[in-house]
Amino acid sequence: MGLVQRAIEQEGIATISVTMAPDMTRRVRVPRAVYAAFPLGHPFGFPGEAFRQREILSRMLREAARIRDPGTIVDLGYGDPLRVEEVSP
């Protein structure tokens, strides 16, 4: 995903991804990402949690506009209590 994001960014379009594996995402060097510590396969939470899914999407879009430093991963604070904090490269 990092290669696709960087190509889109070169055209002047901001991108952001949702990660469930921040360590791997750091290695791929995506331009910006958000982290929600849900289990694999549930990047926006669990089925039937439309309110949470909309909330995560809304926060993700706000972070896309806010993040300035390439490679930044922002922890949204959802899911596993053993979360990583905001990480810059």
Note down, in words, how this protein is organized.
- With 89 residues, this protein is of the alpha/beta class.
- It has one domain (2-79).
- It has helices at 2-10, 22-28, 50-66, and strands spanning 17-19, 32-37, 72-79.
- Strand 1, helix 2 and strand 2 form a beta-alpha-beta unit.
- The model is unreliable at 81-89 (pLDDT under 50).
Short structural summary:
The protein is of the alpha/beta class. The protein has three helices and three strands, in the order αβαβαβ.
Write the layout of secondary structure elements.
Elements: H1 2-10, E1 17-19, H2 22-28, E2 32-37, H3 50-66, E3 72-79
Parallel strand pairs: 1-2, 2-3
Salient structural properties:
disordered C terminus; globular
